[in-house]
Amino acid sequence: MQKNLLDLSDEIEMEYNQILAESREFFLGKATAQSARFSLIISNTTFILKFMMENYEHYITKNIKDVCRTKMISPIIYLILLLALWILSPISEIVVPEKADSNDSLTKLYKQDVSYIDTKLTDLYFTGYTQTSLGFTTGYYYYTMRGDECILVLLSPSTSEEGLPKIIALHTKGRLAKRDRAAKDVLDNLSKDLNWTETGIASKVSPYYINEPDCRNFRSYLLLFLYFASMLYAFISLILLVIYYRFPLLSPPVRQLSRFGKPAELLAEAEEELATLPQLATDDMFITEHYFIETSKYGIAIVPIREIIWVYKHSTLHKFFWYHFSISYTLHITANKHLYIHCPKNIKSDIDGIMDYLAEANHDIL
Predict the structure, then answer these.
(1) pTM for the full predicted model
(2) Is beta strand 149-155 parallel, antiparallel or unpaired with respect to 208-211?
(3) 23 to each of 16, 18, 44, how far by Cα in Å?
C-alpha cells in the first residue's frame, strides 16, 4: 500500500513538472511572438516615418523649382513662335527692308517675295493725284523711271512736302505692292490727261509700285511695338524663372516672408516642420506647428499662422451652357501687412478641415 502511494506521488510530481514545463514554453513562446510582432510594428512605423520625412525634406524648395520649370514652357514656346514669325512673315523686312539699287526690277523683287525695300530714287514727278482716307490726304502719287521701267511711287505728305512738283533725289523705304484699284485709277486718269489709252499706259508702267505710307503708318508701328514688347516680356519672364529655379530664396513666395522676418530663416523653419510631418495635410495644402503651406500647380504660398487674420472659402460652379460639370472651392487667406493668398480648385472637405484647424491654432482668425 505504501509502495503504491509512493509510486502515485512520483507520477503526480512528474505530471506536475511536465505541466509546468509546457506552461513555461507556452507563455515564453507567446511572449516571444508578441515581442516579434511588436518589433515588426516598430520597424514598419520607423520605416514609414523615415520615408515620409525623406519625402517631405526640402519639399517647399522642390515645389518652387517644379512650378518654375513648368512656367518656363510658355515663354519658351512663345519666343519660338516669335522667331518663326520673324522668319516667315514680313515683320523682319519692316525693321530691315531689302536693299534695292536702281537696277533692280520691282517685278523681279516682288516675285522673290520681297515685301519691303530700301532704295534710292531720282527725278520723281508729281502726277497731280493723291490718296485720301477719312477726308485726310495720306499720300501723293509720283512717277519716275527705274532702269527701263516707269514706276509709281506713293509718298507720305511729310516726304513729298505735300506735293512738290519734282523731287530730284530721294532715299526712301516702302512696301512693294501690286497695283491696286487706287493705283489703276491714277493710271486711268493719267491716260486721259496724256491722251493715251488705258492699255497703252499700263503697258509702259510697272504692275508693282512703292508704297511709302504703308511702311511708316500707325499700324506698322503698333505691330512692331506689340511684337518687341511681348518678346521683351517673354524674355524677362524666362530669365526671372531661371533665376528663381536656380535660387529659390529669390522667388516671390519666399520674398513675401520678408514681411514677417528673415525669409531664409522662416523658410528653413517651415521646411523643418513640414519634414517632421505636418499636423494636417491635403493634396496641396499643409498645416505645420507654425505655418500654413500651399504647394499647388497654381503657385506656392507660405504664411505664418500667427499672421493670418481672415479665412473664407468661395465656391465656383463649372458648367457648359446649361450642363453643370462640378463645383470647386477656393480658399482665401488674408494676413497681416497686406498679404492675400488664394488656393483654387480644392474640394469642400479639405478646405473645411483647413479652416477648422486654423481657427483652433489661432483664435484671432475671423
Answers:
(1) 0.73
(2) parallel
(3) 10, 8, 31
